Each structure stands twice: as structure tokens, then as C-alpha cells.
Amino acid sequence: MSARVASRLVTALSVCAVVGCSAPAGKYFARRGADLADCVEASAGLGLGAYARVKATDYAVIGCGAALCGPLVGWRGRYVPPISEGVYGFPFGRNAEVEASFSAAFPPDYIVDTRGPCFTSRKYFRKPGPGGRIAEQFWFGVSLAALFHARLGFNPAELADFVVGWFGWDMWGDDDWPSEPKETPKEPPKGETKT
Description:
With 195 residues, the chain is an alpha+beta fold.
């Protein structure tokens, strides 16, 4: 590579980095860390029952068995806390994951339901934005339970979001998730005026 090509490449990368760093440095690097953490999931815990599942996106899911797993430790991305989960599946039939605190006071945190190997729906207690819901469809992974439960996964769509995020593009719109609630102006009681 000639010196001229190398200097142009360094200049182009520097401009991209400056554009990407328009947010304060601490916030910028925190967002990149969150995007990187969204790329992988790894959790383990006790598993009562037997279950195995292989997944190549939401469009190719095959599992068999049933298990109640928890308490789980590990990382599941920013959308789902690793609490406890119930899983069941039938080969080329229905596979479901229900993740919850298993308390009557709280609804399930996250439900993934696959009918047949390729028709998947998701329900969230804390729903990600539209881009995050698209990215969630592209998990590759394996889940096994027999006395112990282990789950490993990788999401290439989230990896792409991590890479382009260095240059200022939030591909899935999740850099500020969960978004801060916007304050709505309070109306004065009838008969009073705003000051």
C-alpha cells in the first residue's frame, strides 16, 4: 500500500470517527458497549427436565423436550434479564420459551413462541424499539437442559449494529434504549392560568 493510499485511509477513518463521536465520549463508549453486549447471550442454571434446541434465526428452530430452568445467571442482552425460564418443544412442531420471575405479581418478561420450524412470535414485558424487534429475529444458538441448563447464542444483526455504531449510525435505533419517558406539560386546573 502506498503512502498516499494509507494517508487517505487514515483521513477517511478519522473523519468517520469524529462524526461518530458527536455524543459525549462517555455516552458514546457506553452505547458501543451495550451494542457489543447485545451480540451474545450466555446463561446457565439448574434445569428440571430435559430439553434441547438449535436455532438459526427465527426462521429455523428445532427443539425437543421440556424443562423448567432457573435461577439463571449470565447475560441475555439488554432486552431480557436472565431470571428463570420454562421451555418446551416438539421436533418440527411448537417450541416455546417463557422467561419470568415466576411471581404471581409480575407477568412473564419475555415469551418466544415458534410454531413449526419457522413461524416465531415474541411478546415482551419491556418491548424494544422497532429496530430492536427486527434484530431479535436473527439469533443463532443452542439451548440444552438436563439437571443443568446452558444457553449460548450469537446475533450477527447486532454485531453489524455494533460495527456501524462506531461511525455514528445506530442501525437498530437502540442506542438510547430504554428511552427516557418524555415529560408532558401539566395543564393547570380549570379557572387558573399558566404562569
